TrEMBL record:
GO biological process: protein ubiquitination
GO molecular function terms attached to this record: ubiquitin protein ligase activity; zinc ion binding
GO cellular component terms attached to this protein's record: cytoplasm
Reactions accelerated catalytically: S-ubiquitinyl-[E2 ubiquitin-conjugating enzyme]-L-cysteine + [acceptor protein]-L-lysine = [E2 ubiquitin-conjugating enzyme]-L-cysteine + N(6)-ubiquitinyl-[acceptor protein]-L-lysine
Listed EC numbers: 2.3.2.27
Alphabetical UniProt keywords: Metal-binding, Transferase, Ubl conjugation pathway, Zinc, Zinc-finger
RING-type domain span: 84-124
Coiled-coil region list: none
Organism: Hibiscus syriacus (Rose of Sharon)
Name of this protein: RING-type E3 ubiquitin transferase
Top-level taxonomic group: Eukaryota
InterPro entries assigned to the protein according to its UniProt record, in alphabetical order: Znf_RING, Znf_RING/FYVE/PHD
Length: 171
């Protein structure tokens, strides 16, 4: 972040009216970005490389999930072949379902599932966990993903010739 900021500042402080200078500056920024990538990429690899044990969903969060008792009406909406996403048993009226924040409802099998997993068995929506390490890792992952996106965008911008052609300026 700071390296990008200083690269961007260097760019704007040298800012000149002519296109040639702008392109030169852009090349400098690109160079600085590339050199910074050396530190960013191992950081990303390090984070994604290791197989991370995903902790179970927070007991407190699971306990607060709303419970819906399956009625014939809901069952009709789900379709006659509605089945448990976990054990594949057919659902029946009277089953107690729990509603996840992603709006998927799941059968009584959900509880034991969430004792071991932290995600919706249908769409993989992740519930909060009690594991602070995992939660802060997840936050960090999000930040890295964002940074990766910004980097990719910058590459596109810097790689574009000022006359908007693709011939004059390509790596
Ligand atoms: Zn089941
Ligand atoms: Zn879901």
């Amino acid at each position: 972040m700071t390296a990008f900021a200083s690269a961007a500042n260097a760019e704007s402080s040298q800012g000149s009216a002519t296109n040639v200078n702008t392109i030169e500056n852009a090349a400098n920024v690109l160079e600085q970005l590339i050199s910074h990538l050396d530190t960013v990429i191992p950081e990303i690899l390090e984070n994604e490389g290791g197989v991370r044990r995903v902790p179970p969903a927070s007991k407190e969060v699971v306990a607060k999930l709303p419970v819906i008792t399956l009625t014939e009406e809901i069952l009709a909406k789900l379709g006659s072949d509605a089945e448990c996403a976990i054990c594949k048993e057919n659902l029946a009226a009277g089953d107690n379902m729990q509603e996840l924040p992603c709006k998927h409802i799941s059968s009584p099998c959900l509880k034991p599932w969430l004792d071991e997993h932290n995600s919706c068995p249908i769409c993989r929506y992740e519930l909060q966990t009690d594991d602070h390490d995992y939660e802060s890792w997840k936050e960090r992952e999000k930040g890295l993903k964002k940074r990766e996106k910004v980097l990719k965008m910058l590459f596109v911008v810097v790689n574009t010739c000022m006359c908007n052609c693709v011939d004059h300026w390509s790596y």
